[in-house]
Amino acid sequence: MKNRFYFILFCCLSVIGVSLNKASIIIQPIDYPSYWPRPIQKMKAINEEEIQLGRLLFYDPILSEDSSVSCASCHLQQTGFTHIDHAVSHGIYGRKGTRNAPALQNLAWNKTFHWDGGVTSLSGQAINPITHPAEMNFDLKGLILRLNRTRKYVALAQTSYKTKTFTTSLLLKALSQFTVSLVSCHSKYDAMKAGKISFSDQEEKGYQLFQKKCASCHTEPLFMKNEFASNGLQIDPEYNDLGRYTITHKNSDSLKFKIPSLRNCEVTFPYMHDGRFKKLKDVINYYSDNSTNKNNHIDQRLKVDLFLNKDEKKDLLAFLYTLTDRTFLVNKNYSFPK
Amino acid sequence: MRILLLILSFSSVVFLFSQESMLQVIPFVQNKKVVMNQTIPITENYSIEIETLKMYLSAIQINQDPIIDSVYLLDFEEYHPILLPNTKEIKEFSFSIGLDSIKNVSENYDGALDPIHGMYWAWHTGYTNFKLKGKIHFSTNETKDIELHLGGYLAPFQTVQNKTVKGNLSSTITIRLQLEYLIEYAVKNTYYSILSPGKSAHELSSLLPSLFQLQTNEK
User: Fold this and answer.
1) What does the pLDDT look like over B84-112, one tens digit per residue?
2) Which secondary-structure segment (H or E) carries B107?
3) Which residues 146-205 of chain A have a CB within 8 Å of chain B?
4) Nearest-Cα residue of chain A relative to residue B114
C-alpha cells in the first residue's frame, strides 16, 4: 500500500515537473510519408514554441530596415510560399532582385539553398534576405538591437530559450525551425501513392509521360534533385546571371541552376530562376518545342527528344496539377499568426 | 574608501592578467604601427589608409597542445589581446589564420562566429577569414578603394592558413602583422576588390602566414 502511494506520488510529481518545464517538451519536427527518403538537413529536435517564434518572425516586417517587408512578402503561403506577381523578388524601397523567389517547402530534403546552391545550411540562409540591399537591407547588429527593444520578442526569447537577450543564433534558429516545418506531402499524388485514390485516365497518361520525359531531373517523390543543371535558357542580359558558376568558379558550372521541386508547381508561377515563364504551359512548350535556341551548356538529359503533342501536353499538365497540396496552402499552422 | 576600491580593482586586474599568457597582434605598415583611418606611406608612389582590419585566428596550439574551441576574431577598431592559458615555458606557438571547413559550416552563430560581426558570407555559406578595407592614395593624387575579403573553404580555393612560431617565447607573445607585403602584392597585381572566394582570394591568402612575424624582442 505504502509503495503504491509513493508510486502515485512519483507519477504526479513527474507530470507536474513536465508541465512546469513546458518549453523543453520535444516534438518530432517533421512528419513525412514512409516512401520519402530521409531528410538531408540536420533534424534537431525542436519544440512547438520555437516554431511559433519563428512563425512570428517570418510574418513580421520588423526584420527589414524600414519595417515594410517581411519574409512572407516574397513567400506567400497560398502560392507555395513564393510570390507570383513578379518575375524576380522585390525588396524595400521597391528594389528589385535578380532571381525568382523559390517556393519554401520540404526544405529539410535540400542539400543546398538558393538557385546557385551557395547556401549549405538552412539555419544560415535567413541572413541573406535580411541583409541583402535589394531585399530587407538590414544589418544584423541593428536588427538584434531592434528585437531586444521589442518587448514581445524579449519575452518570447525568455519563454522559448530561457534567455533574456535576443541573439543572432536565436533568430536564425527560430526562423529555420519554422521553415523546416513547412512540409507539403498531402497532394493527390501522395494520396495515390498511399493507395487511397486512383488517378484519372488523363492524369495517369500524364504520369507515364512525366516518368519518361521529366523524372530524370525532377525525381519522385520530392520531384527535385539536389543537383545543378542548365536547362538551356539563354542568359538574360539584364541580370547576366551565371548561376552555380558564381559559387564554384568552374566553367563547367556556368549557367547551371538548382533543379527545383515541382510540388505545388500549379501555384508557384512564374517559373525558372529569373521568372521568365508566367504559365506552366509555357514551360512545357519550352522543353517540348524549342529545340534550337538553347545555350551551349544545356544538360545531356535535355538533349533527347522531349517533343509532346497537344494532347500529351494536356495530359502532362493534368498530372502536374496532382502535385498541388491544398491542405499545405491553407494549413493554419503555417499562416499569419493571429 | 574609494581609493581602497580602486586599489582592489587594479590588483584584481593585475592578478587576472598575471595568471594567463597572452597573444598580441600588432599591425604594422613599413615599421609604423597602423592607426585606423590614418594615412601611412608604403612606397614613394602610394600610401594606405586602413578603415577596417579584421581576421579570425583559430586552432591555437601552445607547445603542440591544442586550446579546445579556440576561435578569435581580431577587430583592430576595438582590439583586445587574446588571453591564453598560463604556460610557463612556451617553445612553440601555432595557429590558423582563418577558419577550417568544419567551422565554416558548423551552424554555430555564437561568440566570435556571430554573423553580427560582419564576417559571415550570407550568399555563400561560410566566413571571411581576413578582411581589409581602405583607400590607396597615389602620389598622382589618384585614390583607389581597396577591399580584400579573403575566405573560402571549398576545394580548390581553400584559404585557411597555418602559422607556427618557435623559440623561447615569453608569456606575452607579440606578433607583428606586416601588412605592406599584402598591400604591395595587391596593388602590383591590381587586386583592389576581392569580395568572393576563388582564385584571387586563394592566391592572396597564401601570403598571410608571411605577414605574421614574431616580435624580435622576445626573450
Assistant:
1) 988 888 999 999 999 999 999 888 999 99
2) none
3) 167-169, 172
4) A168
